[in-house]
Amino acid sequence: MQPQESSIQYSRWEGSSRDGVSVASGPGAEEASGCKRVSRKLCSGKLGISLKVLGGVALFWVVFTLGYVTGYFVHKCK
After folding, report:
1. How many CB atoms lie within 10 A of CB 29?
2. Distance between CA atoms of residues 63 and 65, nearest Å
3. 4 vs 29: CA distance, rounded Å
4. For the whole model, what pTM was predicted?
5. 19 Cβ neighbours under 8 A, 6+ residues apart
6. Sign of the CA dihedral 20, 23, 28, 34?
7. 36-59, pLDDT tens digit by residue?
8. Where are the domains of the chain?
9. Who contacts 47 (Cβ-Cβ below 8 Å, separation ≥6)?
């Protein structure tokens, strides 16, 4: 059985008498959620950059197509 590691984070609010202390036990206790792991994988590194570029290109073509179709019907000769 391995000993559990714990991480302690201390934050102090300026101009206030409140201090915040959070204790997370175990390695990677913050990463317990599967959604956080998936989003960290898809939103960082080379994969994240390529997904953002592909998403931007796809969004451009969707907006371009909607504008083209809308302009066609608005300016259509009767």
Report:
1. 13
2. 6
3. 11
4. 0.50
5. 10, 11, 12, 13
6. negative
7. 888 888 888 889 899 999 999 999
8. 6-74
9. 41
